Amino acid sequence: MSLPPEERPLLVLLPGLDGTGVMFEPFLAAVPDFEARVVRYPEALVSYAACIHHARTLLPQDRPYVLLGESFSGPVALALAAERPEGLRALVLCGTFARNPRPGLAWTAPLLRLLPPLRLPVGAVRFLLLGRWATGPLMDRVRRVLPAVPKATLRDRLLAVIDVDQTALLARIQVPVLALVAAHDRLVPLAAVRHLKAHLPGLDAARLQGPHWLLQTRPDAAAQALRDFLGRIGSAAGRP
Q1: Which pTM does this prediction carry?
Q2: What residue spans of the chain are helical by DSSP H?
Q3: Farthest CA pair distance, the chain
Q4: Residue limits of the AB hydrolase-1 domain (predicted)?
């Protein structure tokens, strides 16, 4: 059973690698019954420490909220939740990880640092993030977002992913946690979710049919999974 409107906490959304928050638009349209706040990372912020600090300054101080970290922002959300901020009622992780989800590619880090940054081809984005769920409107949004983010910013954030490991912080998280897991994720493997589950035994996982970009391709299903999760954890999610 979903929470009544008066008990629903604020949704605070932390974006993917681009940091713009533009790709949240389909999901925001699917949750008109929630008030939402989208955190955006300035292009100069490329390290996890910088993104964590920036997001921390934008967390509500006077009301309960649910923190949602998508993809790149999973480690940001985990670090903030581990600080046990007073208003945090629940944590949602979407297509994300606590540590480098592709450790076999760590050897590419020196190359990425040496080579000039390259623009990620639109075709690669479509294959890795959307697959057969790609639509014209979504591809139009991709073409709008990619040129808006400097190539060096994307490269340096990828390097941050290679080095990140928030495993040691997981034991400090005390709020309920929901993982939205894409059944056809070509970017973040199931091993990343199993790692989270091993360190967060109470993790509530919802497996949805879709690609890495679940909030973009399955916004209604993701929104319902969120409502169901908040209903399961009860009205305490909305109480200060």
Answers
A1: 0.93
A2: 25-30, 48-57, 74-82, 109-114, 122-125, 136-145, 151-163, 190-199, 214-217, 219-233
A3: 53
A4: 46-215
CA dist 72 and 94 (Å) reads 10
Structure tokens at 130: 């959307």
Cβ 208 vs Cβ 183: under 8 Å: yes
- Pull the structure tokens for residue 25: 């638009």
pLDDT of residue 91: 98
Q: How far apart are CA 9 and CA 66, in angstroms?
A: 6
Query: What is the mean pLDDT for each group of 10 consecutive residues in the chain (240 residues)?
Result: 68 97 96 96 97 97 96 98 96 97 82 76 92 95 92 94 96 97 96 96 96 97 96 69
Instruction: Identify the residue whose tokens are 């480690």.
Output: 75
Q: What is the DSSP string of 157-178?
A: HHHHHHH-B-GGGGGG--S-EE
Characterise 71 by phi-psi region: left (phi > 0), alpha (psi -120 to 50), beta (else).
left
The residue written with tokens 């999901």 in the block is 27
Q: Where are the domains of the chain?
A: 5-238
> Under CATH, what is the fold of the domain 5-238?
Rossmann fold (3.40.50)
- Do 95 and 70 form a contact (C-beta atoms < 8 A)? yes
Would you tell me how many other CB atoms lie within 10 Å of the CB of residue 82? 17
Q: Any idea what the Cα angle at residue 233 is, between residues 232 and 235, rounded to 5°?
A: 105
Burial 173-183 (b: 16+ CB within 10 A, else e): bebbbbbbbbe
